[in-house]
Amino acid sequence: TVLVVGSVNADLTVRAPSIPAPGETVLGEDARVSPGGKGANQAVAAARAGASVALCGAVGRDPFREPALSGLTRAGVDLSGLHHLDAPTGLALITVAASGENAITVASGANARVTPAHLPADLRGFTHLLLQGELSPEVTREAARRAHAAGLTVLHNAAPARTPDPDLLAHTHHLLVNEHELAAFASAFASGGEDVAGQARDLLAGGPQAVTVTLGAQGSLTVTGDSAYRLPAFPVTPVDTTGAGDTFCGVLTAWLAQGHPLPDALHAAGVAAALACTRPGAQDAMPSREELAAALAR
Ligand code: ADP
C-alpha cells in the first residue's frame, strides 16, 4: 500500500476576461468547485493506476470538505488516516484569464494544522510513502524520517519550490522536481552541475538514490547512482496541463509499488501525465488504469 501524506483542497475556479489588478473587480463566468491539493491529486492518480492507496492529511468540517474529498472517495483511497479539524478546509482560489494565464491564492486552512501527532502510529502495511511540499516542513520531514526508519521507500515531490530541507533530502529515496524546483535545489546546495543532468546528479550526494526532473513537453530525465533515463514526452495535443506533475508522481509511485522496474514505471508515469494534459482539470483529467494500458499498448 502507498501512503500519501499531503494536502487536500477544494479548488474554486473562475474564468474571467483578465486577472483583476489590485482594487479592480472583473466579471467572470460561473464558478466551478473541484477537488485539488497536491496530496489528494497524487493519491487519486496512484489509485487510478491500480495501487492500493491511503491518505493522511486534514480537512475542516465546512461545506468545502465534501467537494475536496469527492475525487479521493471515487478513486477508492483509504481515508481512515484523514483528520477532520476545527479549521477551514484548504481552498485554492483560481482565476483563469482568457489569455490562459492564471492567478492562484491558496488558503491552507486545515492542511497547515497537520502536525507529527497526526501521522499514522503504525507504518507496517505500507511499502511506499509519497510526499509533497504543501504541509508544514515539520510534518513532511517527520513523515520521511519515520518511514525511512521503518523501511519504506520514500518519494518526495518538492513542489511548490521552496528552500530545500537537507534533513528531508537525507530521508528521501526518490526526489521528483520540475525544472523550476531543480533550480531552487541547485542554488541552495551550490551545485556545480552545468546542465539539468549534472544538477540532478549533484543532488544524489544529499541522500536520494534517484532524482527525476520533469521537463514538461520535453518529457523527463532520471539519474541514479549508475544509470540515467531520458524519456521523451508521449505526444499529445495539450488542452490543460494542470495536474500533469501530480499525475506523473502518483503513477510512478503506483507502478513502483506494484513491483515494476524503474524504467517501466517512468514510462507509464510520462504517458499518464500526457493523457492528463488532454483534458481540463486536475483529478478529473487523470487516466483510468484501462485508458493508460490502452495508451501503453499503442
Ligand atoms: P509540473 O506540472 O509539475 O510543472 P511538468 O510540466 O514538468 O510538471 O510536467 C510533468 C510531466 O507531464 C512531464 O514530465 C511530461 O511527462 C508530462 N507533460 C507535461 N506537459 C506535456 C505535454 N505538453 N505533452 C506531453 N506530456 C507532457
From TrEMBL:
Pathway(s) served: Carbohydrate metabolism; D-ribose degradation; D-ribose 5-phosphate from beta-D-ribopyranose: step 2/2
Activity regulation: Activated by a monovalent cation that binds near, but not in, the active site. The most likely occupant of the site in vivo is potassium. Ion binding induces a conformational change that may alter substrate affinity.
Binding locations of substrate: 9-11, 37-41, 134, 246
Annotated positions binding K(+): 240, 242, 276, 279, 281
Cofactor: Mg(2+)
Catalytic class of the enzyme: transferase
Subcellular location field: Cytoplasm
Binding site for ATP: 178, 214-219, 245-246
Main location class: cytoplasm
Catalytic residues (positions): 246
GO MF terms held by the record: ATP binding; metal ion binding; ribokinase activity
Domain Carbohydrate kinase PfkB positions: 2-288
Listed GO biological process terms: D-ribose catabolic process
Keyword Cytoplasm tagged: yes
PANTHER family: RIBOKINASE, SUGAR KINASE
Protein family: Belongs to the carbohydrate kinase PfkB family. Ribokinase subfamily.
Role played: Catalyzes the phosphorylation of ribose at O-5 in a reaction requiring ATP and magnesium. The resulting D-ribose-5-phosphate can then be used either for sythesis of nucleotides, histidine, and tryptophan, or as a component of the pentose phosphate pathway.
Full protein name: Ribokinase
Gene that this sequence comes from: rbsK
